[in-house]
């Protein structure tokens, strides 16, 4: 069966990556918009309503506008903006989030694709909250280092043009108003969002979120080994999530260093527990354009349409 797919916002970083995934599929008919009509609401509305599934790769306001153009109740929408990620009328697009999430994705016509930093944070935290090892009242902090492609076309152009200010890592979002914070709280079940410190590095793609923990923050006397076991149990059988062994520094590190780009060009997320009985680091790495954006959207599309979840990935 062939499905009609439309990408609204196909000129952006995520949109272009989506088209790269989708153009290789034999089960998809891509609906294309004329460049001259790219911002024409009438033509966009026509294509949105003609599609079996539409991806919205737009700023928040434009995504909300696009949804108002939809009249066909059979068109499924996967939105890549932050507009609907904590909206209870939309299903969060992380199939591995919790039992029953895939059934929700199959049944809905409104899917909110997760943010890249949020995906890594949630994959680490949600299973530990659900397992009772990390209290929902825990006050957490997290640091994320990411490639510059996460900043979109303008940031990519800036980095590729070069300049002394871009050579070193650049922290941002220091006012604690990062757009991923609401979903990081809601989708983990935490009472408060973490203190979050994202950093852009001078490399194209790859992302790693680190969450430091003291044993006093954990419940039931949880040890690093117990955290790793809980993550491994939660993600058992998941083809896109790897939980690496605890204590295997030779396998998990390269000469003592962590490879932020170790999942690049995949739809995989790797989860690690480092540390000891006094201090612990949880780390999740992924490709911010793969499992952190376009790859995740294609995975959700596959789930919704009943295709092989790994098709095209």
Automatic annotation (TrEMBL):
It is found in: Cytoplasm. GO terms for molecular function: N-acetyl-gamma-glutamyl-phosphate reductase activity. InterPro entries: AGPR, AGPR_dimerisation_dom, AGPR_type-2, NAD(P)-bd_dom_sf, Semialdehyde_DH_NAD-bd. Keywords: Amino-acid biosynthesis, Arginine biosynthesis, Cytoplasm, NADP, Oxidoreductase. Pathway: Amino-acid biosynthesis; L-arginine biosynthesis; N(2)-acetyl-L-ornithine from L-glutamate: step 3/4. Residues 4-105 form the Semialdehyde dehydrogenase NAD-binding domain. Its EC number is 1.2.1.38. The active site is at 116. It catalyses: N-acetyl-L-glutamate 5-semialdehyde + phosphate + NADP(+) = N-acetyl-L-glutamyl 5-phosphate + NADPH + H(+). PANTHER family: N-ACETYL-GAMMA-GLUTAMYL-PHOSPHATE REDUCTASE, CHLOROPLASTIC-RELATED (PTHR32338:SF10), N-ACETYL-GAMMA-GLUTAMYL-PHOSPHATE REDUCTASE, CHLOROPLASTIC-RELATED-RELATED (PTHR32338). NCBIfam families: argC_other. Catalyzes the NADPH-dependent reduction of N-acetyl-5-glutamyl phosphate to yield N-acetyl-L-glutamate 5-semialdehyde. Belongs to the NAGSA dehydrogenase family. Type 2 subfamily. This is N-acetyl-gamma-glutamyl-phosphate reductase. It comes from Pseudomonas typographi.
